[in-house]
């Protein structure tokens, strides 16, 4: 019996090549798209899932009640890990982890005649025991317990020493100031690890270099703990909540609590809302899962629509089969089977398509995805996809066709019942509503991205270069500045502790005369060099820039928000106290964005320290002369700082990096929207073809009675347009709700405007009209004599 | 073999009730060859459909092989008619996507007969109607007469006790029609009960009994 069904299915497929192609292609596109998303989602979910101790690993985060707000972050105290392990019996291992050089900047190493830059961290001795980064050389016991010890990756070992075996025990020079001993070599970190580094230095050195760690009010590193297998995380969480106050007195203005988050969850859930973990990348994972389901649904609806539209042709077969003894269930089986067969072909095409699209998709998402043919899960997923899609796509035609009464079918042509037509039209409306939602989404995301890219940040990020302060540049900065500023193509030079793209550093110890004693206001703070305002092209509202011509060691520049917060009528000349350092406000600058647009602009206080030992040199170049300027800067750096390779970053590119995720989402939403409209139109085309075929006789009669071709086209296309119009009405409010929700993520955002909907609507109508018109026009020009005779 | 008692069938148009079948009483014995005649719209085909269980009357009683058909469950009814009744249509109604061979084979598939057995039975049938050479052709590659032969072969494959034929020669020329009627006669001789609907006096004469319908009533029998 199955052979018989397959035979019929196959012959139907071959006989109606165009429709089979539309069906299979539409479904294949939909499936390829959902396969890609499935791979991406799967990969996102697999990040950090490989740690053997995963279930017992937790990251500590700090919740702070500050300035009337609850906030949280992963930054913790420098000695917290050691103390947790010492005091809390349930903690088996604990380790801190912090950047060796500021984020995004690599440390310079030298071994033999090789000089190279590497990215790495400081970590505690327990770190490699907790996380599954297998050692190739060395032993876990005491690996980072000695000062000046370093564990390096296979990649780093190979680049400096040739192989992991040769690297172990060797010394390597760090930042041209310390000699470190390689105590272990670990395997390169897998791509699905959220932590990425090439070396780990001992925490002992970190403590030595950073005196502030003994101050329990300051935070910087991340802290990880591994609980004993029998420990209850809820109890431990309760125990550590007020842990900080063992080392520090309670300050009513700013309460601090500790919390625990299971480490494997952190990658997808790393945003905080009201001091609790809430959202993060998981939102994109969910969003794309929904889009994948939508697109698959659109493709399934095509299938259902085409199949039912064609049922006029299949009805006779159904009637006959019933007359010669088929019962309903065997007919349902037959049609579902046919759907499965088509789905099967679609899956094969989809897999091939996916393989072809993967390289581009990988470039787009920055991942290394591949189809996991070796994994049984993948095959199970494919079979699942086949069964579900085949079933969803085949169910309606199967139920509909198998319910036809043989006498009615065999007696004359099949008339669709009102409810069947209604259902089919409902499907088209649903399909187009989804498509329109995707298009509106695409437009809004595009506009928001555009807004971010073109918004005036308050400083000029074009022709601005960042150079890390390292090696001799620390003490030779003044020399560097003098020499470089004389060169053509270079306008101004200043320096800064952070990079201006992101200022994360905050302080709660700003006060001023007349401030309520218990009020703590969190200020973003920056430490800069002379000519900062000039180099950044910031806009001074009042006052002046830091300058050599004044004694500026106790001077501050505020941004507008900070000035407002403090509340001076004319701030310049007034007093502000930073910690124990009282100083005068010398300037107020207009607000500029020193964070992503997700965040509102914080109050900012800037002080001068020309001798700060790390950070970024900021160079303003002349427009069009940037390449020359870089060559010049390279030369100067080489001569002043020969032990360090010259590296630099462009400010505009650093800014773009803040929106890496959005960029991907924006690109993907473009593709998905186009795909959705393409698949929907495939379906519409098929439907139009069948409607035209079904109404051949009617069209013939109308023409014989004197209808013009344009009358006929209007009549045929009008019906479809009505459906799309209804789809608008359904889609617009939904799209509006979804997109305003998405925009909530931004402190600075565009407004959703009517024209976005208008464009989505017009585009859909135009494309749908083009699709339908081809068939309408074709049937409108058929000679009526011919169409009436064939009936 | 089958009895129809007080069969009524109607449809409502607004407040008017239009009768298609009106008080039909009929008793057909095993081995009879019955022709049903009458003008267009007299209810011939509906009567045939009721007897073939494709259609249900609004009122009345239908006994087939001593079983009350109208009070049966759908499944039982389809069981009975699958194994006892074969249909032949004016428009042949073959499945376009299947070859001659497969068309004849399909009813056996629905009776869950094994593939080996099916082959033998279809081969016999092809032999009997001398269409072995055409077994791999599709219906649209055959003449009308040949298509009707396939239609009859398909009806006979399940060895039915009753064949219902709705104007089996209506689309055929006279020579082809004669051939088909001779086949029916032959089958009747083998004991198969045949009921045909026809317009043609000549074809009606093949039957042992002629029933004339007019406006849904049995007008006369001869």
Outline the structure in words.
The complex is a heterodimer of chains A (791) and B (222). With 791 residues, chain A is of the alpha+beta class. Helices cover 50% and strands 18% of the residues of chain A. The longest helix of chain A has 38 residues, at 328-365. Chain B has a single domain (2-221), classed as 3-Layer(aba) Sandwich (Rossmann fold), CATH 3.40.50.300. Chain B contains seven helices and ten strands. Chain B has helices at residues 44-51, 74-84, 100-110, 115-128, 144-156, 174-189, 201-204, and strands at 2-13, 16-28, 33-37, 59-64, 67-68, 85-88, 162-166, 193-197, 209-214, 217-221. In chain B, helix 3 (100-110) packs parallel to helix 5. Classes of the chains: A alpha+beta (791), B alpha/beta (222). Chains A and B meet through helix 1, helix 11 and helix 14 of A and helix 2 and helix 3 of B.
- The gyration radius over C-alpha positions of chain A equals 34 Å
> pLDDT under 50 segments of chain B (min length 5)?
none
Helix count of chain A equals 25
Task: Give the structural class of chain B.
Answer: alpha/beta
Poorly predicted regions of chain A are: none
User: In one word, what is the shape of chain A?
Assistant: elongated
